[in-house]
């Protein structure tokens, strides 16, 4: 039998990353290097309330900077419009995005919308929008304050449109020009958020590793990120001031996102759809709940079993031979006091049809290692309830 011809691989690592405790102090230099003379700080009210924005202003040595703190838990098109209005009124020429994935994603969408005409939906990947995003996009410096999404090195932003769809705005032009990853900024993160964002990083490393595209560098990065997250997440939750744990979790987060170029899969198809229906649902928590059922489904994919990828994941996590990957993930969520079923989040069976419709239309659906039908998604949801 002839081997199936592989698709051409795209392997591209170009983001500048300044990583380490105290790296926030390099922010002024980075702005200067990029020619940003009047940045808009994009964040949320929670990050601002704990004093992190004060640290950013101090690092920039620019008191009186313009700040947009209207980022919602799941960034929306209306928040993008508000951010663009603030940016244009202040005459800003770049963005410093500070916060978790929501603030970073919102900043990316603002950077696109501020320099391109037309409604935001036209830039969605599923609408063929990638080619409409140009180098006119404003430069972004990303300063993450959580260790989960990896948006600081990602080429996409997930936004809820006015019509309720949760879509990806994806282009090389939205990748932050520089990511400043300072684990000191995560020391005050509450235990629950540390756990949920940490499992988000775990989900990213697992799902992008399972994606079928040929990209050995991305596979290696994802496996190492999973190794770090699996060993350090419980320490980071139980001992929030442990700098080694915080550093490794921040590394795992950005590593998962560096491997995103392979694509994700059904976990994200479902979590994006659920998040569009109920924006209050936390993305990382959803991913942690959905992972076991999706992995069970993907065990039937030749591209997974043939390359023994499940075994490689188990090896990276240090699992005993008699412990399945699915069992280990559920046990980890329980150890972190995270929900293990969608019902605990208020998701009901009568939402399933809408969730499945959204999942089938999501861009991550196309890069799952095994094609999922509507019936397959329904079963994954049933198992995750």
Automatic annotation (TrEMBL):
<dbReference type="InterPro" id="IPR018211">
    <property type="entry name" value="ADH_Fe_CS"/>
</dbReference>
<feature type="domain" description="Fe-containing alcohol dehydrogenase-like C-terminal">
    <location>
        <begin position="194"/>
        <end position="385"/>
    </location>
</feature>
<keyword id="KW-0520">NAD</keyword>
<protein>
    <submittedName>
        <fullName>Alcohol dehydrogenase class IV</fullName>
    </submittedName>
</protein>
<feature type="domain" description="Alcohol dehydrogenase iron-type/glycerol dehydrogenase GldA">
    <location>
        <begin position="15"/>
        <end position="183"/>
    </location>
</feature>
<dbReference type="InterPro" id="IPR056798">
    <property type="entry name" value="ADH_Fe_C"/>
</dbReference>
<dbReference type="InterPro" id="IPR039697">
    <property type="entry name" value="Alcohol_dehydrogenase_Fe"/>
</dbReference>
<comment type="similarity">
    <text>Belongs to the iron-containing alcohol dehydrogenase family.</text>
</comment>
<dbReference type="Pfam" id="PF00465">
    <property type="entry name" value="Fe-ADH"/>
</dbReference>
<keyword id="KW-0560">Oxidoreductase</keyword>
<dbReference type="InterPro" id="IPR001670">
    <property type="entry name" value="ADH_Fe/GldA"/>
</dbReference>
<dbReference type="Pfam" id="PF25137">
    <property type="entry name" value="ADH_Fe_C"/>
</dbReference>
